[in-house]
Design goal:
single chain, alpha+beta, Alpha-Beta Plaits, 2 domains, 53% helix, 18% strand, TraC-like_dom, coiled coil, TraC-like domain-containing protein
């Protein structure tokens, strides 16, 4: 049953594999995912807001490809934080401080039970998609299928490397552009991507606590 459910789920997921920090899609496309820092726009002066907007406009205008910005909100997992408080309580020799830590822990537990504490993370998705061949051209070459398959197999790794190079160049361009706005962006590695997509496809669950996404 679990195996059948896993197969059914995979049919709705466009991802084939995650390799070297690159998400490879079923259609041959590739994606890099960047975690981007945020800025408190409302706390900036009117002049500073204008500078940020102008820099962001210039950033968008310099791109010759489309990209995606994603805001991921999720209920925080505070188990590790509560466990740390428990250890501090056990190690504390001062009875007054020990009682204060205990009361604080109970307050946090009660607060989280009544109020969802959300973590908000910002991502930028940089794409590279293969050139699509029209159906007419495919029919004209139908007699050369064997040759095409052999050629495609021999050049698969080379084409993958070239696409990865193009994607990495775009990624560096995006990182540099975001830096000009005052935003720090870092690429997610394999483990961080797995955590991200696990959380994305399991919205009703708390994040996987055994994996830690990149921190600034």
């Amino acid at each position: 049953m679990a195996k059948e459910q896993s197969i059914a789920t995979q049919q709705f997921v466009d991802i084939v594999e995650i390799k070297n920090g690159i998400v490879i899609l079923k259609n041959g496309g590739m994606r890099r995912v960047l975690m981007v820092s945020g800025i408190n726009f409302d706390l900036k002066s009117e002049e500073e807001q204008g500078i940020v907007l102008y820099a962001f406009q210039n950033f968008l205008n310099m791109l010759d490809f489309s990209m995606q910005f994603v805001i991921h909100s999720r209920k925080m997992n505070i188990d590790a934080y509560l466990e740390n408080l428990k250890k501090r309580e056990e190690q504390e020799e001062n009875e007054l401080l020990r009682n204060q830590i205990s009361e604080y822990s109970e307050f946090i537990k009660s607060f989280v039970e009544q109020n969802a504490v959300m973590a908000k993370t910002f991502f930028a998705v940089v794409p590279y998609d293969p050139i699509q061949i029209t159906g007419v051209a495919t029919d004209l070459l139908s007699g050369l299928k064997f040759w095409e398959k052999k050629k495609e197999k021999n050049k698969k790794d080379e084409d993958g490397e070239q696409k990865a190079i193009q994607l990495n160049q775009r990624t560096e361009q995006v990182i540099d552009g975001l830096n000009q706005i005052g935003l720090r962006a870092v690429t997610l590695n394999n483990e961080e991507l797995i955590e991200l997509f696990y959380n994305y496809y399991n919205p009703a669950k708390i994040e996987r606590k055994e994996l830690k996404i990149a921190k600034e």
